[in-house]
Amino acid sequence: MKQTLSFGILLGLLLLVIVPVYGAETTAADNATSAIQASADQPFISATVSPDPVPAGEPVTISGVATGGNLTAGVQIWVFAGNYVNVSTTPVNADGTYAKTYQTTGLPPATYYVIVQSPGKDGYLNIEMETSGQYSGQVVNAKTGALIFNFTGTGSAQDYEAAQALSDAFNLPGVDDIYTKCTFDLVSETMATPANTAMSTTPVATATKSPVSPLTLIGGVSLAALTVALRSRR
């Protein structure tokens, strides 16, 4: 009877030790899997410009990869320089890639700033620009309606200053959008075409004397003959 009781107590103690350890291992594995999944779901955005520099009048393509979060609305691309501002959305493909091509005909040569914005986990673009009405050109917080800065008008921000103001907007409280930024140079065709360094084949004028023409030669002979005739009469 004592042996049976001792065996039962020993078995119970073993179960108390083994079960928690097994449970702890299972929880650790689950946590690792959850961490990997959470990392994969984190929004990510990248962007490249091709070609760069861009010859004036030639198209330029902005492309990259956007993953994680809710990309139903696609990504929003901001392109601006001086008084030029272009804000548009483009869809993200199933493999996470996106691309948008812009025409540059009529645009002035300059450094153009590019910011590509992903909507984050909530699927909404929290930072937007008013494109019509009296508030056209105003960048606003879509969640609160607060004005962030103007692209046009008095006190507006342009170029680097606008890029910095827009970058700061994505760090505002409650904004989960993420972004990446880059630039490209739009150059005139003469600057985009490599200079021709080959030596010129155009003949260079030399300082040699011109040959005596026949008319000049005849005139000289006639003058000499006249001189001889006059001397003979004397």
CATH homologous superfamily of one domain?
Answer: Macroglobulin (MG2) domain
Run of helices and strands = HEEEEEEEEEEEHEHH
| Integer average pLDDT | 76
How many β-strand stretches? 12
Name of the level-1 CATH class of one domain:
Mainly Beta
- Total helices: the number is 4
Spatial strand order of the main sheet: 3-12-8-5-6
Derived structural class:
alpha+beta
- Coarse morphology: globular
Low-confidence stretches: 13-26, 31-38, 194-230
Distance between the termini: 179 Å
Q: Give the amount of beta strand, in percent.
A: 25-35%
Report the radius of gyration as a whole number of Å. 40 Å
* Name given to the CATH architecture of one domain: Sandwich
Q: How much helix is in the residues?
A: 25-40%
- Reported by name, the CATH topology of one domain is Immunoglobulin-like
Largest sheet: 5 strands, mixed
Describe this structure in words.
The longest helix is centred in the N-terminal third of the chain and has 40 residues, at about 1-40. The strands form three sheets. Strands 3-12-8-5-6 form a five-stranded mixed β-sheet. It has helices spanning about 1-40, 160-170, 190, 215-234; strands at about 45, 50, 55, 60-65, 75-80, 85-90, 95-100, 110-120, 125-130, 140, 145-150, 180-185. Residues about 15-25, about 30-40 and about 195-230 have low confidence and may be disordered. The protein has a domain at about 45-190: Macroglobulin (MG2) domain (Immunoglobulin-like, Sandwich). A hairpin with a 2-residue loop joins strand 5 and strand 6 (about 85-90). Helices cover about 30% and strands about 30% of the residues. It is of the alpha+beta class and about 230 residues long.
